[in-house]
Amino acid sequence: MNTAVVGKLLKIGEVSASSGLPVKTIRYYEDLGLLSPIVVRSESGYRLFNPLVLKRLDFIKRAQSLGMSLKEIHLFLEIHDRGKLPCREVKQHLEAKIEEIVKQIDALETLKFELQGLLSGWQEQPSANCLEEIICPNIQSEPDEISI
Questions:
Q1: What is the rounded CA–CA span in Å between residue 84 and residue 102?
Q2: Where are the domains of the chain?
Q3: Is residue 68 classed as helix, strand or coil in its secondary structure?
Q4: Would the pTM count as exceeding 0.85?
Q5: 3-state secondary structure 4-17
Q6: How far apart, in whole angstroms, are the C-alpha atoms of residue 137 and residue 142?
Q7: From the UniProt record, which GO molecular function terms apply (predicted)?
Q8: How confident is the model over 31-89, as pLDDT tens digits?
């Protein structure tokens, strides 16, 4: 591993190697302001990172794995950067994620029931007399039922 450290600041390649994130992702996070308090530019324009960036990137990756958007993560990091723990806000967002998941599960159960109903009445060789008007009669309405 290249240990290109300037003083106690890390170059982006070292951050990438240590975090397992591509350089492009780290640049993107910086552009979004997710890394703002712990990244500076050298005189020659290189990004230099406080070693705490690794903990911040770990938080970002974990929050994303829990379904948090980068916008939500930005909110949490802003609270943290003001010297407060964002645990209350994280909890609220996690509870909202659970509600979304429950709704998605309900919608998937409804879809599953509909698919099972379609399959239970499936015709392997449906009548081809309406070939020009219907693509698959197993999932479409009869031609006279279609409203244009």
A1: 31
A2: 5-120
A3: coil
A4: no
A5: CEECCEEEHHHHHH
A6: 7
A7: DNA binding; DNA-binding transcription factor activity
A8: 999 998 888 888 898 889 999 999 999 999 999 999 999 999 999 999 999 999 999 99
